């Protein structure tokens, strides 16, 4: 009998694997629910504008917050058959232009269950920034019959709670609106109730039944962005940067943008379908107003409509505003309203405001910002050694070699297949000797195997997520029958974190870092390839309530594990596929299983830009495309673009042909090597940008409009992007391209990276492109630090000298920055770093300290020197320089722009100034 059942399981599992693994030609749409098959979405979408019956009552200031009740206007109407209990509303105001709005059920009415509020996402510092509201002023808005409440938000901004009809909005003081909620009266809050006889709350989809023991509990409302030309954000979708309307006149039948973390096999580009991660943050931008943002902290399935202009033509609601606006509809299956309004007014202000709530991106280790080589799978130790030595043979730098699931003993994470990997420590140490690192994969599904210690322990301790009947949930994933640790529980996260100690993770060494995959979580035989919504977590929380945050907690626990392993001294590196607001604090993410197609190369840009706008700057797409075999030209173009992704990793499915950079003939190897060299040369610049992100939330890779917010031509451009504020990169997304149209934003000229030639801004240039590179430009007025010598790994470049590239503007001025620390520890957080500012003006380059001065700071120094200073756009004449305080001379000569390839153009170069990077100095051109 046992054997029969085992046999049956094996067959089932093989079938599941086959369906999951075989390369089908396209995404299996039917496996996933659309809005019509999702009752809460269908209900919310069918509501009519103005249907919200709520008004505000009992408004007061309590504990520094504005509090009120939302009651049904029809309560007084005895004919109303479905009165709703009052809801409690709280508005709090935080420093820096952040308004927080909470709406939940009133506990004094004893709802059958406490609704889930997502813990551990908001950073404690944010709570300390609450402003203690003192005063409420009243004002009659428009033709309202009664007053509304007005509170201070930020100098120049106010928040208004309109009583009847219920509405919340932010406006410039006494003037124009910025953001609002429920202006279109679409607000609805389904209250929990006790099931009545005969009521059927179950939902069925493709053979799966969701018992829904608490019945309908969804929430929906509209949010309007004023003075907006476009809205952006709400990753993760494989679609354009500027979000297209999903409903309204002229919009073909479209699904809303879905936020539901799913393992979508072969996802499509150009689709509002939700994939691996969810960040309910939308940002609007327009010439009239600037930038504003909205964030809903809620981990249940969400659907968001961008309503095209004219969607409400028949609603009869005229908003009291002469401003252009974009309306959106937000719908979630469960949870509460915990929403944040960000006033901007600039793009960088909004990301700063958002990351003040959920935290800024973690500072990565230096090596993690370099090039990563991955494949499913590097077979065995010999394969690893060969790949590693080939990089040396071809003189291509790389920093990290990755091992996918096959390195384990039967997909039991934290173990090794001892036949293929008999000496894991030795293998890692060999890499480490060249300054390289290794990453292994650790997924959340634990093989249900009695002899597997992790499973035994998790079972005994009751650490698994439970199914609706209270038994350990059993789903299918790579190892077959699997269970999933309940990462919502801090005790379980701490237990998990301990598994990464060198002692517990046998065969690991300090140079090993981690990859968290399948953490949506992916369950091959679950509804929509994930966990059933009625599965149960810590504290009786239903999976439906926290689904989108499961991967986030898993990522957090893993990153904490690496911190613990290093005794709190070493920065972790963990790559995660699933994500949620706050993931930026725990590591990097990537865009999952893309395909080796030009359109996937193209869509990687808006996908990464969108992640950056919503806090997650350390992200990238699989270089080369995960599925399929890229033509060499596509692969080369992908390397050329990927070299500018914040996270730069090549990866491929096990069914694909091997594609390490030396396998496509000498010329292609040269081209890929050159792309990798571009990244390595720019590592000091990238690292400086990661530090900027770490302190301000401003992403490394930015949409053009973030740097040029007044230039309308940039607003929907998602084929080009900025790396920091100094570099503009234009992707090449077509085969055999001979030209590329490159829009260079206005106000300045731009130096073509390849030649040093200046191009005018404010226009589109038809650039000739060759196979050698994709167009990239340095903005006039900037200084970029580079390291031009190539080693085996970034770690080995530590003591190498710098090159400064000065791109002069029309007044012969420029400035730039450089951040350096030990690249590894947390000492930087105590002040152990160098932050230099370079300014070129009046023919003089100065280097000064840009770090804020604070006493008792830890020290960091560097013996590196500047070996070359390149002057782009310099009017010829002078031949030499005078250096202070050394009182020395350095010559200006024509030298190569790049040391790495023979045919480099020549540019004015200050040769061997040999000033120390750590010091203050001045170089005067004579
Ligand atoms: C799915 C991931 O997205 C992919 O990158 C990985 O190679 C496979 N799982 C196998 O672990």
UniProtKB/TrEMBL annotation:
Record bears the keyword Protein biosynthesis: no
All residue ranges annotated as the Glycoside hydrolase family 31 N-terminal domain in the record: 89-305
Region forming the signal peptide: 1-26
Involved pathway(s): Glycan metabolism; N-glycan metabolism
Gene Ontology cellular-component terms listed: endoplasmic reticulum
GO terms for biological process, alphabetical: carbohydrate metabolic process; N-glycan processing
Entry GO MF terms: alpha-glucosidase activity; carbohydrate binding
Domain Glycosyl hydrolase family 31 C-terminal: 697-784
Keywords: Endoplasmic reticulum, Glycoprotein, Glycosidase, Hydrolase, Signal
Entry-linked InterPro entries: Gal_mutarotase_sf_dom (IPR011013), GH (IPR017853), Glyco_hydro_31_AS (IPR030458), Glyco_hydro_31_C (IPR048395), Glyco_hydro_31_CS (IPR030459), Glyco_hydro_31_N_dom (IPR025887), Glyco_hydro_31_TIM (IPR000322), Glyco_hydro_b (IPR013780)
CDD domains per record: GH31_GANC_GANAB_alpha, GH31_N
Chief place where the protein resides: endoplasmic reticulum
Domain of life where this protein originates: Eukaryota
Location of the Glycoside hydrolase family 31 TIM barrel domain: 361-689
Protein location: Endoplasmic reticulum
SUPFAM superfamilies linked: (Trans)glycosidases (SSF51445), Galactose mutarotase-like (SSF74650), Glycosyl hydrolase domain (SSF51011)
Record keyword Signal present: yes
Protein family membership: Belongs to the glycosyl hydrolase 31 family.
Protein name: Probable glucan 1,3-alpha-glucosidase
Organism in which the protein naturally occurs: Actinidia chinensis var. chinensis
């Amino acid at each position: 009998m046992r054997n029969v059942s085992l046999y049956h399981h094996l067959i089932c599992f093989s079938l599941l694997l086959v369906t999951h693994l075989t390369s089908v030609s396209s995404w299996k749409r039917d496996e996933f629910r659309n809005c019509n098959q999702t009752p809460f979405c269908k209900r919310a979408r069918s509501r009519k504008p103005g249907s919200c019956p709520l008004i505000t009552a009992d408004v007061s200031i309590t504990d520094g917050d504005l509090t009120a009740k939302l009651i049904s206007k029809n309560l007084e109407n005895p004919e109303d058959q479905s009165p709703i209990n009052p809801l409690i509303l709280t508005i709090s105001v935080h420093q820096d232009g952040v308004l927080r709005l909470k709406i939940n059920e009133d506990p004094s009415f004893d709802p059958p269950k406490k609704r889930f509020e997502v813990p551990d996402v908001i950073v404690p510092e944010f709570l300390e920034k609450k402003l203690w509201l003192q005063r409420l002023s009243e004002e009659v808005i428009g033709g309202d019959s009664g007053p509304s409440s007005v509170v201070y938000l930020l100098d120049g901004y106010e928040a208004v709670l309109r009583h009847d009809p219920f509405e919340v909005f932010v406006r410039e003081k006494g003037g124009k609106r910025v953001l609002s909620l429920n202006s279109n009266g679409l607000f609805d809050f389904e209250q929990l109730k006790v099931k009545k006889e005969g009521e059927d709350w179950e939902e069925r989809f493709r053979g799966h039944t969701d018992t829904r023991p608490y019945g309908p509990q969804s929430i929906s409302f509209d949010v309007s962005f004023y003075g907006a030309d476009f809205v952006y954000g709400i990753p993760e979708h494989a679609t354009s940067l500027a979000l297209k309307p999903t409903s309204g006149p002229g919009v073909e039948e479209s699904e809303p943008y879905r936020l539901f973390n799913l393992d979508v096999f072969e996802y499509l580009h150009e689709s509002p379908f939700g994939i691996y991660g969810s960040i309910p943050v939308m940002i609007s931008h327009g010439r009239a107003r600037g930038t504003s943002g909205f964030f809903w902290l809620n981990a249940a399935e969400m659907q968001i409509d961008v309503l095209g202009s004219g969607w409400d033509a028949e609603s009869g609601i005229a908003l009291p505003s002469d401003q252009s606006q974009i309306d959106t509809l937000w719908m979630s299956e469960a949870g509460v309203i915990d929403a944040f309004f960000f006033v901007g007014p600039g793009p960088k202000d909004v990301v700063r405001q958002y990351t003040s709530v959920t935290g800024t991106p973690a500072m990565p280790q230096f090596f993690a910002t370099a090039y990563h080589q991955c494949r499913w799978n590097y077979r065995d130790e010999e394969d690893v050694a060969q790949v590693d030595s080939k990089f040396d043979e071809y003189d291509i730098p790389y920093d990290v070699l990755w091992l996918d699931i096959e390195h384990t003993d039967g997909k039991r994470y934290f173990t090794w297949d001892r036949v293929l990997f008999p000496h894991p420590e030795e293998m890692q140490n060999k890499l480490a000797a060249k300054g390289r690192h290794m990453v292994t994969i650790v997924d959340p599904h634990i093989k249900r195997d009695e002899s597997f210690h992790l499973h035994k322990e998790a079972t005994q301790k009751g650490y698994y997520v439970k199914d609706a009947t209270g038994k350990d949930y059993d789903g299918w994933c790579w190892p077959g029958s699997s269970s999933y640790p309940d990462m919502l529980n801090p005790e379980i996260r701490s237990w998990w974190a301990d598994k990464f100690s060198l002692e517990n993770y046998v065969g690991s060494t300090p140079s090993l870092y981690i990859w968290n995959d399948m953490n949506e979580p992916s369950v091959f035989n679950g509804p929509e390839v994930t966990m059933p919504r009625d599965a149960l977590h810590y504290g009786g929380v239903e999976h439906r309530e926290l689904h989108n945050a499961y991967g986030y907690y898993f990522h957090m626990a893993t990153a904490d594990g690496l911190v613990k392993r290093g005794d709190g001294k070493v920065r972790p590196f963990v790559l995660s596929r699933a994500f949620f607001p706050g993931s930026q604090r725990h590591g990097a993410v990537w865009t999952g299983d893309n395909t080796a197609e030009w359109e996937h190369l193209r869509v990687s840009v808006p996908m990464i830009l969108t992640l950056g706008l919503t806090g997650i700057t350390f992200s990238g797409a699989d270089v080369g495309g995960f599925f399929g075999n890229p033509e060499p030209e596509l692969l080369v173009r992908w390397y050329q673009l990927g070299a500018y992704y914040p996270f730069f990793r090549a990866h491929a499915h096990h069914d694909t042909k091997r594609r390490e950079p030396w396998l496509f003939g000498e010329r292609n190897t040269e081209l890929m090597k050159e792309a990798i060299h571009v990244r390595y040369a720019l590592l000091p610049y990238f690292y400086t940008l990661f530090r900027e992100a770490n302190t301000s939330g401003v992403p490394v890779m930015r949409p053009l409009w973030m740097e040029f917010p007044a230039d309308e031509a940039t607003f929907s451009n998602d084929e080009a992007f900025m790396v920091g504020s100094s570099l503009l990169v234009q992707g090449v997304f077509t085969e055999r391209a001979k030209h590329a149209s490159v829009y260079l934003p206005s106000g300045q000229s731009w130096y073509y990276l390849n030649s040093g030639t200046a191009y005018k801004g404010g226009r589109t240039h038809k650039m000739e492109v060759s196979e050698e590179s994709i167009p990239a430009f340095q903005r006039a007025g900037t200084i970029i630090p580079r390291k031009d010598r190539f080693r085996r790994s970034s770690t080995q470049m530590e003591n190498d000298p710098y090159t400064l590239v000065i791109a002069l503007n029309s007044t012969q001025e420029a400035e730039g920055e450089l951040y350096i620390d030990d690249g590894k520890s947390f000492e930087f957080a105590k002040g152990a770093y160098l932050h230099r500012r370079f300014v070129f003006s009046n023919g003089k380059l100065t280097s000064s300290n840009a770090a804020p001065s604070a006493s008792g700071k830890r020290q960091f120094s560097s013996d590196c020197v500047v070996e070359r200073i390149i002057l782009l756009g310099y009017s010829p004449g002078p031949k030499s320089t005078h250096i202070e305080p050394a009182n020395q001379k350095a010559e200006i000569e024509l030298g190569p722009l790049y040391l790495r390839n023979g045919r480099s153009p020549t540019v004015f170069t200050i040769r061997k100034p040999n000033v120390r990077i750590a010091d203050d100095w001045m170089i005067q051109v004579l």
